[in-house]
Every structure is written in C-alpha cells, then in structure tokens.
# Entry
Amino acid sequence: MSGGGGPRQKMINLLYVVYIGMIAMNVSGEVLKGYAMVESGLMRSIATTSEQSTDLFNKLTEIHAVSPTKAQISYDKATDLRAKTQELTDYLDGIKKKVAETADLNPDADPENLVNKSDLNAAFAAMLVVPVGGGEPEEVEFLKRIEEYRTYAGSLLTDDDIKAVIDTCLSTEPSAKAKETHMSWAESLFAHMPAAAVVVLLSQLKYSVIYSEQLVMRELLRTVDSGDFRVNKLSAFVIPEARVVLRGGTYKANVVIAAVDSAQEPKITVNGKELPEDAHGQYSVPTSSIGTFPLKGFIELTSGEGITTKLEFATEYIVTEPSATVAPLMMNILYAGIDNDLRIAVPGAADVNVTANISAGSLSNKGNGIWTAVPKLGTEAISEAIIAVQVKIGNKQQEVARNTFRVRPLPPPTAFLNVTNPDGNKTMYKGGPLAKNQLLNTPELSAAIDDGILNIPFTVLGFEVQKFDALGFAIKEASDGAKFSKRQQDLIRSMVRGQTILIRAISTKGPDGVTQTLNAPIEIIVT
# Structure
C-alpha cells in the first residue's frame, strides 16, 4: 500500500465518499415526511402563541392608555421585551434560511419546502464551520443570543416557578448524551443532522422564545392594578389546557375574565349552556370524533350599582386521531449493542403518558421525548426491530404507532494516531509522510468510527509495527495494548528518512463487545 495519494488510497477515498453518500441517501422518506408534519404543527403553534402574546400586550397597552402612572413600568418592560423577541425570532428565521440555502444550493430556498431534506452537512456548514478568513463560527453568536434573551426574560419576573419554566424552555445545557461525546449544545443540534430536522429544531426554539414572551406578558399584566381598568373595559378569555386533543380524551378549558370582583362569581354560558358555580369557570366536554369544534358564549358580571356587563368570547378546539412520530437521531437504522437515541412524540399528549417498547433488545426513556434503544442483532447480517408506541387516553393505553427499523452491526473502525503538530494542535493521522520525532512523541494508537455520522470510540487491544530490512525481510514488533512498546519505539528510532513502516494486525474491541482485526494497516513514510 502506498502512502498519501497512491492509486489504492485514492480508490479507498473514492469508495469512502460513495459510502457516505449512500448513508445520507438512506434517511427514509417516512422520517423526512415526519419532520415536515412536525414543522407544520410547530408553525401553527407559533402563530397561535404569537397571537395570544400580542393580545396580552394589547390589553396592557389599553391599561396604560387609561392609567399610565400605574402601568408605566410594566408597559415599558413589555415594549422592550417584544422588541427583543422580534429581534431573536428574526435571527432564528435567518438561520433557518441559511440552512435551507446551504442544503439546496439556492439563494431563494424556502425552509418550509426543502428540496434536499436529508442533507447532513448544511447545518454543520452554516453554524459550526469557522468562516473563511478567520473569526468565530455562527454557533458562538447563536448561543450568546439565546442566553442573553433567557437572562433578560427571567430578570422581568418575580415568580421563581415561571422563571424556572423559561430557564427550561431556553436551556443551552448539553444533554447527557452530548456530554458523553464532548459535544456542545449547538453541536448536538447541528452536527450531522438532516436539514429537515434542523429546521424543526429551530422552529421549536422559536416557539420556546415566543412562549417565554407570553409567560412574561401574563406576569406583567397580572402585576398591574386593574381597578381603574375594570370600570372602563372588561375582556373575556378562554384558556384551554390544550387546543389539540386526542380522540377519546377530554377537552378542558378555563373561561375567565381579565378583572373580576372577588365578592361574586360571574355567570358563564358556553355553547348555550350555563356553567355551574362549582365549576369555577372550567368547561369540560368529552371528545368522541375528530374535527374542529367551536367554543363560544358569554360572561355576565353585575357591578355594585346593579349594572350587568355581558362579555362575549369565541374560539375553537381541534380533536385529532392519535398518532406518533418515531425519528432516529443518527440515521434510519439502529446499531446492535450500543445506545441509539430516538425522539418519540405523540402530538397532543404529554410525555408522561407516552410509553414504548422494542421487539428485540431494550428501550428506555431519557426524558424530554428522547428514548434510547439498544437493539439485539438477529441471525442475519441485517435484522429488524419493531418499536411500538402507546399513549394513555383516560384510564386506558392505546397503541398509536408501530415502526420497523433495520438492525445491523457496527461497521469496522478506522485506526489513527493523535499526532501533535508543531503548532501544538492534534491531528487524526491515518497514513502518509510523518516526521520521526512526531511519531515517537505519539504514545499510543487509537481507533474509532468517525465518518461524519457516527462518532464511536473503540478500544485498541494490540498491534504490530513492521519494517523491511535491506534484504527485504520483514522485521515485526508487537504491542500488548494501545501503547507503543519499547521494542516498537526502538524499531522506529532505527528508521531513516524515506523508509516505510507499517502499523498492522490492529486488534480492536467495540462498545458492542465485538473484537475484530482491521484489514487496513497504517502506512507511514518517515520524513
């Protein structure tokens, strides 16, 4: 085998590129379609939540117009918060646009209608790559903006519970899995993820920003004394526990008035029926069929002077068929014997009511919709595992999805040396010219799957160092682990410039417990 750019190495490189392309092409259409469905739902939620936040700000504006002295501080905070929210959401939309343009190679690309949905490099190039000419990657600015907004929104609150909700929604703490692989929060979002998935993640983050704004708006509105406002204008609200309900579940909503007299209960009429007083404004109705259903009525409140005010309201709620999305975070296959992270979500259902199981292996819930599958390999080289998802509706469990995944063993790793360059930085060296002192200063051999999709370290159990003497006879020295033995180092010291040395017979053990000897040696030309 020749070093550097020999014909065989070039062929290996070409096959590697083809292999990566085939992996990228294997992101299933079902998964990409699932991302599109989730994105569509998120866009509706964003629009609804933004509208609710605007309504709250408008009500605060009305209070300020009637009583500017009492509402000035809250009004100023709300105005500044909306400006910061708009700035951050515009920035997130810009990142989505940038990812779409990179994935589709089109300056007019639409994030909501991606062509190359499975592109695994677009988000990495847009967010994690150092710009040409130097500087910091976009992830630095991205992280800074999220953290600044979270801190600012929290500073406007006195309620620690609400502040904790915002801290959770806008958390930039890496997941446990990301920490294990030494990935930052931004890297876990953008590294080696399909473009369609990244668009969904950015939309989810945008929703969290707008939802956080709504929480702060409610708190600012609550802190304003509404005494003067009550005698000028009253407003009715319908606050549902959820606007999307699974068939068989129960739709619940609180019907409230913005400013009430604690001495009396208002009369509330919903869809032609008056709510009993002991309901305290909570409207409840069972759901037996899917569709969009109207919810309208009025609230009657009598003042101390005997004047009755009637306030009308109207909204709607959606009942959907139970469904689920199972999306693998790495790719559309599962690897036997190792942790495979999956996102399992049932629209309209809380995570606590979602359960799942796998036909071969184990499946555990890590929280926040993330599950870990450790499948078992069957008798064939590539077998299958079925993941079934159930959701609790009322007092019974109902299966809502059943997905089949291919299970295959881990591919063999690539051996490399962590060589320290003259500038002090380390490089994954896989063969070619190398200075003798750099080789001698590298204490051990490493092996891993690091192909841009998987990032899995292997344990090196042993290897041989081989050179040929002047008569063409092979001289070999073996190690009993990952570190170079003294005999191997002495053999390297005897090398002269231009000689070739092989690191071969590399024995490895993967996280799945499988041991194997790698076919490809590392060929080093001493310089």
